[in-house]
Amino acid sequence: MTVIILTACPPGLRGHLTQWLLEISAGVYIGHISTRVRRRLWSRVIDMAGPGRALMVYQTNGEQRLSIEVHDHHWTPVNLDGITLIRRPADPIYNAAMPSG
Q1: Structural domains of the chain, count
Q2: CB of 66 within 8 A of CB of 55?
């Protein structure tokens, strides 16, 4: 299973993804595709994303049984001892309001 989530991407890219995947919500595409197609599709997403951002999650062998790819996304995957976690940037407004110490 592969899931691709697009934000602020051109309509042409969305149309291209619907050739291979099913759009279940605005900008959310899912489907079963081969590794070869997934790699080529992700390359196309990166080439066509323009000012938008993209996130892809797909099934792999391993502890979590999934892998995450991101393009121009402010949340980034981080490998910690073989486990992938998502690093979310700190909210400066929230951090400024919290007392330190």
Answers
A1: 1
A2: no
CATH assignment of the domain containing 23: 3.30.70.240
The tokens for 45 are 């997403």
**Residue keyed to tokens 């619907």:** 18
Beta-sheet strands, E only, within the chain: 2-7, 22-25, 28-31, 53-59, 66-71, 76-80, 83-87
Do residues 30 and 1 touch, judged by C-beta distance below 8 A? Answer: yes
What's the predicted TM-score (pTM) here? 0.83
Taking only the tens place, the pLDDT of each residue in 22-51 is 999 999 999 999 999 999 999 999 999 999
The SS3 call for residue 95 is: helix
pLDDT beneath 70, residues of the chain: 92-101
Domain span at residue 86? 2-97
